[in-house]
């Protein structure tokens, strides 16, 4: 039996629940009018299982016997189970078939399942002939459900009602929030709706409280980087800027920083788009550009609110950058994010926005670049000899890795080979020598940063690889693109 042939469609996967799949050790193969075909673990009692399934489904059951090893491998991929499932030996929340979409509790079960699987986003989208739901776990999307086109509008409307959105408006984007409660669990969900060619697409961002309770020491800074970062945020005034692409963990780093700075004797104001997490003791303002409440305007007003610390969601334009500089010059500590490829690129970007170098040198405390990297599953990672020729040319001479790890795949990581993510950083503390470089508009500072033992994103990522925490394919985009 060639295990590569076991590729059930999402529709086939939905014919049985996770409980049924794991209990009988079966995988769907095909679905006829009066019969169902399954791959079945040959180590189990096929006669008894067949009799029970025929009663359960009311159809003739045909088994194709394969080893339990292959069955379990693919079950961990197609029928995800939560961590509680491994502890209690139970299945994951049931995979819904199409008829169950009409039940009122489907949406709640969907969100609860996504939360249990540590999913960050739920994508609900419609195409010409079908609609689907995808989960994003550890930064990667995978298809979870296929739903009928006829059921799609009702599901969309239910989400819009819960998020207090206009169900009659289908031409314009809308944004809202849902407070999800299930037993002892309670968290916010950010809802984004956009019109697409074949119906509205919705993305649900799950905002768990655990994301803001994380300690700054758990983010991924090494000891030297953390020391440099803390030096910057402990100053009474200046600017801290964090760069990175969307989804690189910048907001989590900012909230972890605010947790350190949030004390009774300081006044902290934030302007965010959107407010992802509510923080006790911090005054948070939601950006509303449609009525003129922009980052720049809010920041201008903040200066009249006697703030000690200001957090801006993002420096997007020259006006916001100018206001941030002004706030820092008048004695405030400003935290924000910006989109660049490296930490020093933040300086270049601000100069391109029209900020005078002498103003930057007087106000910038620390610049940070970060990325998120998936960690190898500790239960199934595979050790093998390492070929330095796999590295980019600039790193081949420095390769000191004899062994490395590659992703395997098991039920603990849903057969992906990865479990969880960790941030890698590049932290530059702007000391007097670097201030002089900035004021003189010197853009080439690599040698000086090397002299100061500044660890680059590439070095941080490579250390994770060398320590066996991640794979070469996961860090390759970072180590190959860094200038």
Describe the structure.
It is built from 19 helices and 18 strands. It has 483 residues and is an alpha/beta fold. Residues 83-103 have low confidence and may be disordered. 34% of the residues lie in helices and 27% in strands. The longest helix is centred in the first third of the chain and has 12 residues, at 46-57. It is globular and about 80 Å long. The chain has helices at 10-13, 18-24, 46-57, 68-78, 83-88, 106-116, 152-162, 210-213, 223-233, 250-261, 295-302, 318-329, 345-352, 357-363, 393-396, 432-439, 446-451, 457-466, 472-481; strands at residues 26-31, 35-41, 60-66, 121-126, 131-137, 140-147, 174-182, 185-196, 199-207, 238-243, 268-272, 283-286, 309-312, 333-338, 364-376, 382-385, 403-406, 418-429. A seven-stranded mixed sheet has the order 12-11-13-14-10-15-18, sandwiched between helices. The protein has a six-stranded antiparallel sheet with strand order 6-5-4-9-8-7. Strands 1-2-3 form a three-stranded mixed sheet. α11 (295-302) runs parallel beside α12.
- Would you count the extended β strands for me? 18
N-to-C terminal Cα separation, in Å?
Answer: 48 Å
Major sheet: 7 strands, mixed
- By DSSP (H or I, 4+ residues per run), the number of helices equals 19
Q: What low-confidence regions span 5 or more consecutive residues with pLDDT below 50?
A: 83-103
Q: Radius of gyration, Cα only, in angstroms?
A: 26 Å
Strand order in space, largest sheet: 12-11-13-14-10-15-18
Q: Supply the helix-strand structural class.
A: alpha/beta
- Please state roughly what percent of the residues sit in beta strands, choosing from under 5%, 5-15%, 15-25%, 25-35%, 35-45% or over 45%: 25-35%
Q: Given the C-alpha coordinates, what overall shape results?
A: globular
Mean pLDDT comes to 85
